[in-house]
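User: I'm curious whether this sequence folds into something compact or stays loose and floppy. Could you predict its structure so I can see for myself?
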Amino acid sequence: MSQRVKDYAKPDVKDRIDWLCVEAMLVMCDVILWARAKQLPVVISDAVSSQEEDQKLARVSSTHREGRAFDLSTRGWGKDSIDEAVRVFGFKYRHLAAIGQDGSPRLVYFHNAGTGDHLHFQVAKRFAMPLQAFDSA
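Assistant: Here's the prediction. I'll summarize afterward.
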């Protein structure tokens, strides 16, 4: 069954996907196809955000604001699938990866920053988009 990328996003995230950089969108599309092939649930739980939203979530980086990060919910995923996604996409797109807090390239990691367990995908700073003003109401 073919769907639009936005069809995989939470309602409050759908319009934000348009503001992702092409490199993040490429990774997102590949992840969606990979997860669908494995019959895993696919829900994009976050994409581009405002500074106000980042402050509320106490985010430590600007990756979402700069249109170079998205989050994929792992609800309904097993640990093996999560680990495989980190390994497969971390390697496949290592040339696009952002630099992690440890100074190493890191495309994807699993965590819960207070919004539920998810995979956080992030591409390098060189792909940053101009900051957007969003109505966070």
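Summary: Residues 11 and 105 are 31 Å apart (CA to CA). The chain has a mean pLDDT of 87.
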